[in-house]
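anyone else get weird line breaks when pasting these?? whatever heres mine. first is seq + tokens for prot A
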Amino acid sequence: MAAAATNEAERRRWNDEYWASVWPSREQLTDAVTDVLLGHLGLAAGQRVLDVGSGGGRTALAVARRVGATGSVVGADISRPLVRYATSRAEEQGVANVRFVVADAQSESIDGAPFDAAASQFGVMFFEEPRTAFANIRAHTVPGGSLAFACWQPADRNPWHAGHAVGRFLEPPPPPAPGKSPTGPFSLGDATRTAEVLAAAGWAGVERTPYELPVTVEQEAIAIDDAQLAFMGIPDSQLDEARRAVDRHVAGLRRDDGRCDVVLAFQVFTATA
């Protein structure tokens, strides 16, 4: 593997044990997206698939069931806690044709290549150099292989996101270093720019399908807890006020039964290697 010289801020962020502890509650928010994404992949039995930014493993496990015992899936993520969580999940569910590895898909070689397809469910928005990352993913894919990933539409299309409630408590992020791109959940929201990045990375036939998907979730799926507020860099002196802002935000979405109705504005990009 290449030296770990890229995405250092994201490595530090995602290797906190916090993420594995909250993953089950957060994952319910995007459960319904998995079937949408799989519909774009057109998987067949026996295929080998790379899941980029595999997180807690839900997408990789669903793909593993689609490709069957003669197929295989590798889930790659920079988060050791999430790779451990996903591996444990696969073992508990008895899914033998999937494995999870700690790897940065932007710069590192991932064992198992070449793959027939590459997929990602909200796992490709955190690359400092997205063109480099998507070129590396293409290099791991057979000629004519497919790419399909889900990413968020712009933040203003997702008013449910609790980040809107705490933005005023955060210092503006420093500009990215020369040659780097901003990272974060909405970094690929600009559809035109994302399509250009994919084309520059060597992917052909780039297509985008937008979705607005209504879902009902427990409030924990969208709330930001104290640990994450602190992790986001909100000063201790403002934590109480930020917590109240999040509570007000969630209350505006909450139904009488305590659950929340939200509309997920996301997009699926597809392309061919």
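and prot B, same format (seq, then tokens)
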Amino acid sequence: MRSRSNRASLILGVAGALLLAGCAAPPPKPSVTPEPAEREPAMAEEARRALALDRPLEAAALFETAAEQTQSPLRDRYLVRAAGIYARGGDVATAQRLIEDVDATVLTGEHRHRLTLIRARIELGEDKPEAAWQRLEEQPDNLPESLARDWRDAQASALYSLGRQIEAARIRIGLAQSMAPGAARERQFRLIWEGLSRLSPARLAAVMPSGSATLDGWLVLATRFRENRIDAPALRQAVAQWRQRYPDHPANRFAGQILADHLERLRPPEEIALMLPLSGRLAGVGQAIMHGFMAAYFQDTAPRPRVRVFDVGESGKDVVSAYRDAVEAGMDLVVGPLTKQSLEMLSVWDTFPVPVLALNTVGGEGIPRDRFFQFGLAPEDDARAAAGLMAAQGHEAAVALVPNSEWGDRVAGAFRASLEARGGRVLEQAYYQPQASDFGAPLTRLFNLDASRARYGTLRRVLSAEIEFEPRRRQDMDAVFFAAYPQQARLIRPQIRFHHGIGLPVYATSHAYSGSPQPNDDQDMDGLRIVDIPWLMAGTPALDAALSLNAMQALWPQESKRLPRLVAMGIDAYRLAPVVDVLRQYPGDGMASATGVIHVAGDGVIHRLLPAGAFRDGRLVPLALDGEPFGMPRP
């Protein structure tokens, strides 16, 4: 680096030369030649050529090398260029490392703006879109074209992360219009689509007309996809009609590409391995699921897959051997296994060559999620739905009664978390022994009746007189939740009334109901509000008549009466097979089915939203709010 004295000498030398320019005698040659300005190294030019050839990582490495060969301020500019490439590619850690070594005080104009853009991209990578938008909202004037384009691209990314997808799409449409056909333009199309295709049809419709014919075309295309996302023939027709309506739309060719990609994900499996315990103590459970699965299979009007059944029960194969056989046989999908132990055994696989639609859920690390879906009748889904129903009916302060067991803890935890997420709270929680028939002690504690009796005793002693006394329950609760199976639920509900719970709304999970009408046994549960699968809810049809509860009871009366929810689960397992991957792409969308409205989360875990019912004259009937059947919101 030139010293300040060298620069001062150079300035004085130039000034002296100018002063003497008019003299006849030539100036004497200076004894020290001034240091020439620092030149850009060849690496910098090579980096720019690499960028022009769309080789960004090579360009970033060359800019880093150029920085090593130069001094400030060139060095800082090259570090900024390299960091910008890494940040745009998503490697925010490397970008952050590079800019930490930049002296921002020597940067001016374009280079200072590049540094601002890098910092915004780093914040986006750290999931701080608000901070990024604050940096990006005001775009500086007179930016070079490429930098201005990058700035707008980052603005769109920030808006998308903030949930402002329509504004992001407007920016990207403008960017695409300024680009020649090629990879950069296709990238903008993909990002426009990624943003708009995640919006619900209702939100898309609310934006139209948008004031932009191009944006309207995108919005209509996204709407058609969302409306027909799991119906391949209808989707083909909808896209064909869109292309006829918008023949000159810039996304016309792109629509064909995304249709092909979507249809590939919708391609139904040609061969399915159904792994169930068909021998041993769980044989009846396996049979119930298989009956539902095969009933849906025979009602399928589309070309049906070949189904190979594997017994993974006590007399059958172990699940790992069965899975290996499915892989070697070229199966497209494995449905099952059923038990948590079997799912844990599958964790020996680092990856799943054949996707698995498991019929249970299992926690823990080490289970690959990419091709592993978990579909179970989890009690947590019921608990969340019960909390949602309670909150929707205006109740915020609950007490909870659950069995003293791992199952009870799971239900209680999910109920509490869901109610608190909706602004409510669980005031107190009590446990009962799983085989109990007398629930007086835990109910007395829950309702604070013991405290009321203690106050009565104190008053008697103080006053030394008999006092008319009626125990009073606590006044800060407005609802009761309990978890129990039918035998105990039929006892808990009347005991709540007996313990001064008359008038309190009482909620439970579906486990309180046997699944088949038994009005004589269930009449004591009148008024109890539960959530359950729509397949069992009279007046809440989820499927056509051929797969209704009545139809299944005619075919398999024993399983359909004893294990109706598992028969429904088998129906849904078949219906999920061709669409489960697509549903994971749209976790906000649900598929109405026998076990509820099914949502597939990003981690492959399948959640169910359940309708509500109440017991009346010993029968479960749909519960309506404002005259409409109550469908659960997302948990």
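btw re prot B: Residues 1-37 have pLDDT under 50 and may be disordered. The domain at 271-374 is CATH 3.40.50.2300 (Rossmann fold).
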